[in-house]
Amino acid sequence: MGEIIAIVSGKGGVGKTTLVGNLGIALAELKYSVLMIDADLAMANLSLLMGLKTPPITIHDVLLGSAPAHDAIYDCPAGAKMIPAGLSVSFYTRVDIDRLVAVTKDLQQKFDYVLIDSPAGIEKNVVAAMSAATQIMLITEPTAPSVADAFKAKIVAQRLNQRVMGVIINKCSNTKGEISETEIMKMLELPSYGKIPYSEDIRESFLLKKIKPVIVYKPSSPAANSFRAIARRITGKEVDTDVKPEKKGGLFSGLFAALKNIFSKKTKEK
Ligand SMILES: Nc1ncnc2c1ncn2[C@@H]1O[C@H](COP(=O)(O)OP(=O)(O)OP(=O)(O)O)[C@@H](O)[C@H]1O
Ligand SMILES: [Mg+2]
User: What pLDDT, on the 0 to 100 scale, is given for residue 251?
Assistant: First the structure.
């Protein structure tokens, strides 16, 4: 029985697809069997990152019940596999996303890790991606709006009784004002599975004629190695679950305390 990990952020553009693509390959490099699923049905782009232009059978066909899941599985670097999403808008409006739970349950028998690339937000399709997972990994940028949205996603996951395993911090640049890893762990009350630097190599890897995951484009770059470190932690090596005390009086901690209050009140009212 494998793990099904949904990568969720709340906020858009923080690096979910980049994480799924690179982490999938990093796990495959460690010789685990890996399947990545593009569950961002409206704005699919994991297939572009993996260099699949127009895959004939996609998750849309699987969710429509017109193809079995194994017909929609394609090869990726390092032996990883993926199920892409279709690019057609009309398909998108017809699919039954709730079938995703049954689809992943079946695939869980065949892979060590199933990684789900979810859409931004906390709406129906994100709820379906969360429900189809055994664990949820949050990803955030080290900025106030991104951490606040990750927190909202965590609350949604908890309401679904889904386990949130931790948080990954992307686009770290050590700029003044960035929220520290320790502070983010404390705010979200979650362990960190690692930091990914803000990386020109990642930016460039998206600007190529044929886009590539950075782990393929620049295999020895710091960014590529940060995905490998996250893969090692996920496979159960070393995770720093020790949430250290936050320094008092940060500008953001006051805002966050207020947000936390609003959300926990709503949770209690439910
Ligand atoms: N560590 C990084 N350094 C520099 N650029 C990055 C980094 N991570 C992601 N990006 C860039 O940020 C943009 C958004 O990344 P990505 O598509 O992975 O985010 P997403 O969370 O999947 O977005 P969406 O919510 O739209 O699905 C891309 O152009 C990507 O190249
Ligand atoms: Mg995406």
Answer: 56
In this structure, the dihedral spanned by the alpha carbons of residues 99, 104, 110 and 111, taken in order and rounded to 10 degrees, is: 150
pLDDT at residue 164, rounded to an integer:
98
Full domain range(s) for residue 39: 3-269
CB distance 172 to 182 below 8 Å: no
pLDDT given at position 83: 97
Q: How many domains does the chain have?
A: 1
- Mean pLDDT score, 121-133: 95
Per-residue confidence (pLDDT) for residue 115, from 0 to 100: 98
CATH number at residue 67: 3.40.50.300
Q: Which residue has the higher pLDDT, 109 or 239?
A: 109
- Counting ligands in written order, the one closest to the CA of 49 is 1
User: What's the CA-to-centroid distance between 267 and ligand 1, angstroms?
Assistant: 31
Check if 199 has its Cβ closer than 6 Å to any atom of ligand 1. yes
User: CA–CA separation, 71 vs 218, rounded Å?
Assistant: 31
Nearest to 44 by CA among 116, 119, 107: 119
Q: What are the pLDDT digits (tens) for 20-56?
A: 999 999 999 999 999 999 999 888 889 999 998 889 9
Distance 206 CA to ligand 1 centre (A): 9
**Amino acid 209: pLDDT:** 81
CA nearest ligand 1 atom 9, residue? 15
User: CA 19, CA 213: separation in Å to the nearest integer?
Assistant: 9
Residue that has been written with the tokens 């429509």 in this structure? 64
Q: Could you tell me where the DSSP H helices lie in the chain?
A: 16-29, 46-49, 59-64, 89-94, 100-108, 124-131, 144-159, 181-188, 200-207, 214-217, 222-234, 251-269
Q: Which residues have a beta carbon within 5 Å of ligand 2, which is an ion?
A: 16-17
Does the CB atom of residue 214 touch ligand 1 within 6 A? Answer: no
Judged against a pLDDT cut of 90, whether residue 194 lies above it is answered with yes
